[in-house]
Amino acid sequence: MDLNSIQWREFDLNEIFPNIQRGKRLKKDDHIIGAKPYISSTALNNGVDGFIDNTEKVRIFNTCLTIANSGSVGATFFQPFSFVASDHVTKLENSKFNKYVYLFISSISKRLSEKYSFNREINDKRIQREKIILPTNLKGEPDYAFMEVFARQIEKKKIISFRRYIASRIEEVKDFKVVESVDKKNWKEFKIVDLFDFEKGDQNNMANIKKGFIPLVSAKKGENGYKDFAAQANKKLYSKNSLTLNNDGDGGAGISFYQPIDYLLDSHVTALFPKNKLSRHVLLFISRCITNQRDKFGHGYSLTNSRLKALLIMLPTNKKGEPDYEYMENYIKKLEYDRLIKYNMIKAIQEI
Fold it and tell me: What does DSSP say about strands 211-217 and 264-265: parallel, antiparallel, or unpaired?
């Protein structure tokens, strides 16, 4: 099916979605940790900004689109589950739509972001006046049948592509050697600076960053530290196959992430470059060991350069008392292999 072979027309957003409602403010301090997704204005992870258990003084929605009013303004996601909506998102709901119609329209709604910014948010009045362009049938009405078929075709292609990716990843790690459990290994303390060179980030003017395709790593506690994707803008590009370590931040201090591609780095994060050539799997293992010590850091006790130089981590050792990189590699490969096989089986069952 070709998007260029059909007619398109402009429709009022409230004509397509009879149920438009903003979420409700819930202060961070009032969050009760739980299992229900909390949707806010992040452009990552389908808008999920945490998991909570709040049921009072919140708005709980289900099976709809969410569009960010602020933050990553215009970011639109289909939410197939029950969730708590923050006041930074608005739900767009039509009870007659299925998953595929929602997905098609979400890709159109995201274009609203071109009209808005941090200084011009999508408030309740503006969203009621918004319009979107949709494909139409012979009657000039939204062609929801076309939207569904088109979205199904896209999904099928993505599933085929992803299955190939999973297969290639399994092929990459299937040669792992079975290793003993971590509690049976000998462990020893090592100074991080004996294993890594380090450099603090240089990006400190976040408001002036131009959008691009390079990950911008900040002191976040999730999403690999990614705050956004930016253009290089004459700032230093940090090399892939390295670790990042949060110096401070809202709950993120002391957390380390493996970075598989080149990235930009803000001033609240330090890059760790291995002094010896280490594989992705070894670096993933070490990043977890570093993160295990995060409890000693926070807003009142940041990870300065002098503290980093004194920071010790526990690592498994070989017979020479050196870091057992072979063990670390096989341990992570085994974990990855098990997860990939499990995921492949789950997807196969879902498609039966």
Answer: parallel
CA-CA distance, 271 to 91, in Å (whole number)?
39
pLDDT in tens, 105-155: 999 988 877 776 656 778 888 888 889 999 999 999 999 999 999 999 999
* Burial class of 109 by CB neighbour count within 10 A (0 to 12, 13 to 18, 19+): buried
- Report how far apart the first and last C-alpha atoms of the chain are (Å, whole number): 26
Interhelix angle 99-109/144-173, rounded to 10 degrees, is 90
Count Cβ atoms within 10 A of the Cβ of residue 99 and give its class: 0-12 exposed, 13-18 middle, 19 or more buried.
middle
Q: Is the pLDDT of residue 348 over 60?
A: no
Q: Quick check: 225 and 219 in contact, CB under 8 A?
A: yes
pLDDT computed for residue 250 by the predictor? 63
pLDDT over 90 at 251, yes or no: no
Short-list 135, 108, 133, 109, CA closest to 122: 109
- 96-106 pLDDT, tens digit per residue, is 999 999 999 99
Residue 325, pLDDT > 90, answer yes
- Chain mean position to CA 54: 23
Q: How confident is the model at residue 352 (pLDDT cuts 50, 70, 90)?
A: very low
